[in-house]
Design a protein that fits this description.
By secondary structure, the protein is α+β, with helices and mostly antiparallel strands. The chain is built from 13 helices and 14 strands. The strands form four sheets. The protein has a six-stranded antiparallel sheet with strand order 2-1-3-4-5-6. A four-stranded mixed sheet has the order 11-12-13-14, sandwiched between helices. Strands 7-10 form a two-stranded antiparallel sheet. The structure holds a DNA duplex. One of its GO terms (molecular function) is ATP binding.
Length: 745
DNA sequence: CTTCTTAGATGGATTGCTTA
DNA sequence: TAAGCAATCCATCTAAGAAG
């Protein structure tokens, strides 16, 4: 039957290393002792079908499901896909294989067909299958986990139980569905009502249209009748015309009989007509030649008359022009004399004026120039002083900012040192607080109280169970393990739950808990798995009386593959120069992390807040050292603050000096600007004076020249007019003589 | 050369905490 | 108690290396 699970395979999932279960067609029972992993199978099914890690209430993240000491977990679920309910049988065939893999850093879902071929890998494809088969792992009636059943049975409240039942049996869903359907029905009803209302006017319109169509049909019949009548009328006209044609044909026949007699008379008259025509042509020719001659004579006379009148007119005009020119010439000569006199007067006046004014202006300009020079030298001096002071001020400001920066940096250092001192002071009273702070103490107390609930008491924090061969590597080891040192180790998942409860009680959230088999002997690492280098590994510099702690640091922290080096340069050569096998990361004693992944080489700086000294063997000494350092920094800071105060005082003085200089300089500059404007004005005035007189004479001279030119032109025109006048007089005489001889003829 | 596995990056979804 | 923000989870993609 489609949708049933036929087989489940688990690898490294929770407590199962490798588990195969074949399921029957109907009801299946799984039995086993407490803690044998029955509910792990149910959890695996939930995870396979896409449940979130948290909602199983068995782990915080997916990777918590990976069996301790393993790198991955896998769940494979075979789902039957036969029968009419089958999901995409053409793609998957009779069987859908759902494979879920979880690794430390990622997880994936793969869907395969009956032959094990990969078909899909996206979450959406899985969701489609889940929806198709109506698998609802979050529904407590589909999967009733231990916690759910306990919660259900122990909730004494009937209301809560009904709520649970209501949700589980999908009644809630049905209820919601019914509500939405009711809403939709109401909506549809109101829409139908509205539509009915709106249809009424349309029906009325339809009736009117039908009436119109009926009328149109009647009109069509009438027009048909009209057509028929028109045709009849046309035919009646045809009959009439036919009758008339018959009568006209008879008349035509009679007229044809008279044609030969008429033709004879026509011939006789034609001969007579030809003779008369010839005579007419001759007479016409005579008349035409006589008329032509008369016209020519008339024309010549008229022409002569016209030319004489024209020439006389020209003569009169030329005489008038001559008089005009002579008159104008006289006037121009008079103007010329006037202008010459004016020019002489002007030149005389100008000579007298310029001499007096020029000497006055020259004196003014010299005075102003000397004042300007004085003011300019004053300003330059003031500016130089100001510049000198400003430079000094900027130097002081620079040193002030440097000192302020140093003070801030030192304050920060003091703060960091104080933090470290506080840490150490706390640790002096209890070493454990180095790994998680004050809350670890509360957690340990809580563990103590719940001691009986644990199968084996948890080990932690891991850092508290470690000793270092030498303090030199403490910072590097701290960087290499990071938060792993704050983690706790438990022996089974039940203990993990209990420990998490304890942590919650004391508000220690996000406590890292590692599940590990306490009975496992100390891991024996073969030499060929260790990095081939003379530098120590993290594993080689740590010691612990607890082998589980060491095992966990190897499994979770790769302690045997983290190499420690003295300084940055050595670290780079170890990490990148020769590709040494089995090296995971290289840490320098001052906390730099270096590693290469493929071709990419990465160097990460140390943590911002160093926590070296977590394993410090003598915190007392270190505290004294830190206190000395703090005192040093404080002393330096107080010195620097003194310097800063002095510099601030100097700065104030300089600023005052600069302001007073500025106050002196500004009015001086304004005066200079005023004087410059005066000088410009004076120069402009003198220039204007000169140019004005010059322009006046030049204008007169120009006019004079112009008038002379005009006179010359006019004289030329007069001469031409005289020549034309004599020519015209001669022409008049000639034409009159010619006319006289013509008339005599 | 192809396929599989794994680590790491990325961005949307979810969860938890703080504050008004 | 709801809104806003930050931290965390997890699906998905890509690239490198391993295996066949």
């Amino acid at each position: 039957m489609a949708g049933t699970i036929s087989r489940i395979r688990l690898e490294n999932f929770m407590c199962h290393s490798s588990l195969h279960i074949e399921l029957g067609d109907h009801v299946n029972f799984i039995t086993g002792q407490n803690g044998s992993g029955k509910s792990a199978i149910l959890t695996a099914l939930c995870i396979a079908f896409g449940c979130r890690a948290k909602s199983t209430q068995r782990a915080a993240t997916l990777k918590d499901f990976i069996k301790t000491g393993c790198s991955y977990a896998a769940i494979v679920v075979d789902i039957n896909n036969q029968g009419e309910d089958a999901f995409k049988p053409e793609v998957y065939g009779n069987l859908i294989i759902l494979e879920r893999r979880i690794t430390d850093s990622s997880s994936s879902t793969i869907l395969k067909d009956q032959h094990g071929r990969k078909v899909a890998h996206r979450k959406d494809d899985l969701t489609e299958i889940i929806e198709h088969f109506n698998i609802d792992v979050e529904n407590p009636c589909v999967i009733m986990s231990q916690d759910k059943s306990r919660e259900f049975l122990h909730s004494g409240n009937d209301k809560d139980k009904f709520k649970f039942f209501f949700k589980a049996t999908l009644l809630q869903q049905v209820n919601e569905l019914l509500e939405t359907i009711k809403d939709q029905l109401n909506n549809a009803d109101s829409i139908v009502e509205e539509l009915e209302k709106s249809i009424k006017p349309v029906m009325r319109e339809l009736d009117e249209l039908r009436q119109k169509i009926k009328n149109m049909e009647h009109i069509e019949e009438i027009s048909h009748d009209i057509d028929n009548l028109k045709k009849k009328l046309a035919w009646s006209w045809v009959y009439d015309v036919d009758k008339q044609i018959g009568e006209q044909t008879v008349k035509l026949q009679k007229l044809k009989e008279r044609i030969p007699a008429c033709q004879e008379r026509i011939d006789r008259n034609t001969v007579l007509l030809d003779e008369l025509k010839k005579e007419l042509i001759e007479k016409e020719e005579n008349v035409r030649s006589l008329a032509k001659k008369t016209r020519e004579v008339h024309m010549m006379r008229k022409n002569m008359d016209d030319s004489i009148t024209e020439v006389v007119k020209q003569k009169v005009e030329l005489e008038a022009e001559h008089d005009r020119h002579t008159d104008m010439l006289g006037k121009m000569n008079k103007r010329l004399r006037q202008l010459q006199a004016q020019l002489r007067d002007f030149q005389l006046q100008h000579m007298q004026h310029t001499q007096v004014e020029a000497s006055q202006i020259e004196e003014d300009i010299q005075n102003i120039q000397s004042e300007i020079d004085y003011a300019h030298s004053n300003i330059t001096r003031l500016k130089e002083d100001e510049k000198e002071f400003s430079e000094e001020l900027s130097g002081i400001l620079k040193s002030i900012s440097e000192i302020t920066k140093e003070i801030t940096e030192n304050d920060k250092k003091i703060q960091d040192l104080k933090y470290e001192t506080d840490d150490l002071l706390q640790r002096q009273s209890n070493k454990v607080t180095a790994f998680g702070g004050q809350r670890v103490l509360n957690l340990l107390e809580s563990i103590e109280r719940n001691n009986r609930r644990f199968k084996s008491p948890p080990i932690g924090p891991i850092g508290a169970h470690l000793q270092l061969a030498s303090d030199f590597w403490s910072f590097a080891v701290d960087c290499a393990f990071g938060n792993l040192l704050d983690a706790f180790i438990v022996s089974c998942h039940k203990d993990l739950q209990t420990l998490r409860e304890c942590a919650k009680q004391v508000n220690y959230n996000h406590l890292r808990i590692i599940v590990y088999d306490f009975t496992r002997p100390r891991l024996n690492i073969p030499d060929d798995s260790l990095p081939a280098t003379k530098h120590p590994t993290v594993l080689s510099v740590i010691q612990s009386e607890n082998h589980t702690v060491l095992n966990v640091l190897v499994d979770q922290g790769s302690a045997e593959r983290q190499v420690l080096v003295q300084d940055y340069e050595v670290g780079k050569s170890v990490a990148f120069d020769h590709r040494i096998r089995n090296i995971k990361d290289v840490y320098t004693s001052d906390g730099y992390r270096m590693f290469s992944r493929g071709s990419v080489q990465t160097i990460l700086p140390p943590n911002k807040r160093p926590r070296a000294g977590r394993w410090c063997s003598s915190p007392g000494e270190r505290i004294a050292e830190l206190k000395n350092e703090v005192a040093d920094f404080q002393r330096i800071n107080s010195e620097k603050r003194g310097q800063k105060r002095k510099l601030d005082h100097d700065r104030c003085n300089l600023e005052q000096k600069i302001t007073s200089l500025k106050r002196k300089r500004e009015p001086e500059e304004r005066r200079l600007a005023n004087k410059r404007l005066q000088l410009d004005d004076a120069k402009k005035a003198s220039a204007e004076n000169n140019s004005h007189t010059a322009v006046d004479t030049s204008e007169l001279e120009e006019e004079l020249k112009h008038v002379k030119n005009d006179i010359q032109q006019k004289e030329l025109l007069l001469q031409k007019a005289n020549v034309r006048l004599t020519a015209i007089l001669r022409e008049v005489d000639d034409r009159k003589a010619a006319y006289k001889t013509f008339m005599e003829h």
